Amino acid sequence: FRGSCFDTNDTLHYHYYCLNDTEKERLKAFFTHPHRPNKGDVPIANPTKGAFSSRRNITSYKHCNLRIINDFNHGHKALIDVEKVTINLLSKVIHMEDALRLLNNLDQLRSSVLPPAPYNKCINRCLALHSGHKAAFDNILKILNLMLVKKVKPDSITAMNFLVACAECGEFEAAKQLLFDVDGQPSWLSQWELTPNIALCNAYLTVCAKTGKFNEAYEFLNVASPNNMQRRWPNAKPPIKPDRITAMNFLVACAECGEFEAAKPLLFDVNGQPSWLSQWGLTPNIALCSAYLTVCAKTGKFNEAYEFLNVASPNNMQRRWPNAKPPIKPDLITATNFLVACAECGEFEAAKPLLFDVNGQPSWLSQWELTPNIALCSAYLTVCAKTGKFNEAYEFLNVASPNNMQRR
Asked: pTM of this prediction?
């Protein structure tokens, strides 16, 4: 190697350096496999730490992506290693163009099959990279199109991430195209040679809830409907069998869309017809019961919530399903949801038996073998605020009061 330098009189001098045998071997190895640094080399940026806060970092991460691809092409790494590194890098990008650049690098893989996992991650990442839903969703459609152009086969995770994006961005019509034949065009799933599973059906119910399409959710789930999910795909493998997440997502849709009456056939026998849950071979759990209380709160059906929870009521949730497995046991979330219903419906007196002994009767909480926590106490203060009971709130919180929450 020839180098140059200036002395103190600004005179140019040349100097020469000869590599020893060890250095020659290292240099040869570097140019043969530039993707495999020796321990003494300067390390590149760590793909698992920090975001792309500068263009310099972006360049380093891009080199890391190319290096693992070169490793694969030379037989030093497996395809799963390329996926992991690329997904790690995609989780750090802060600009969409950098995410697309990382995906385009995958074209250099000497593989007959490109993995869908990085594209799936990029679909998920779009929601974080854009403040506006329209821009995010437009880029998600670009990524799906990119997969088709590059002949990357979408999988069920692609579909799931797309439905999550539809829910977040309020894109109901796009969710339909994914699952159903529309205007004579086969669904995207069928074009991808996939059939829905229960997880995708549950995600579709969330899209319906987020976009106010309650009728579609009801038809999709209603046992008696010719368009329910089980009849739509009778040959799905594994067979589509509703589960408790299905029921939970439907109750969320009922709450979001203000549909109390529709929630009843899910849980209860109505007009001689067994509940949907019983037809699915399921029994409610405490999470579903708590979600039903939220439906009552959102729809102003306080009497139904009170009867459902009241320890003395013949229609309370524990008496309704005595053989539920696991047994239905109210918890602090149940209590919080009931206090929310009391606040929303302006029912101060009904909140008291939950927390306090009234007329010689122990509180519901004590009968459930629970003690209040600060979240419940705070929820009670909200009930007081919503119902104009300031004196009760003051006594409950006042440090000097014999009835403050800590002394109780």
From this structure: 0.75
